[in-house]
């Protein structure tokens, strides 16, 4: 499945996120197996490791749960010192991507 840009990167080692407009920006981050790309259509792509083949992006079936993503993004915003995080609500994966981009700018 083709990745629909822009995306957010959900790092497996913690509750951090990053925004990326394209693949070049994704590769600027220190990625590890288990990190996920969440694209603008709600599809997840997990960075997987194959024996001898290195790391590759593997499409996950289904779409991201927006209610679960809301909870995670509220925790992330709180860790950045944003107040009133309960008011941060996304309705779509595209909203989530826009929120992470906004959080990175502030």
From TrEMBL:
<dbReference type="InterPro" id="IPR025284">
    <property type="entry name" value="DUF4144"/>
</dbReference>
<dbReference type="Pfam" id="PF13642">
    <property type="entry name" value="DUF4144"/>
</dbReference>
<protein>
    <submittedName>
        <fullName>DUF4144 family protein</fullName>
    </submittedName>
</protein>
């Amino acid at each position: 499945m083709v990745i629909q840009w822009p995306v957010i990167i959900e790092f497996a080692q913690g509750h951090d996120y990053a925004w990326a407009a394209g693949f070049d920006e994704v590769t600027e981050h220190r990625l590890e197996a288990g990190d996920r790309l969440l694209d603008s259509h709600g599809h997840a792509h997990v960075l997987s490791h194959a024996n001898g083949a290195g790391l590759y992006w593997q499409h996950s079936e289904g779409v991201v749960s927006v209610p679960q993503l809301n909870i995670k993004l509220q925790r992330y915003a709180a860790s950045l010192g944003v107040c009133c995080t309960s008011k941060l609500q996304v309705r779509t994966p595209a909203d989530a991507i826009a929120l992470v981009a906004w959080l990175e700018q502030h």
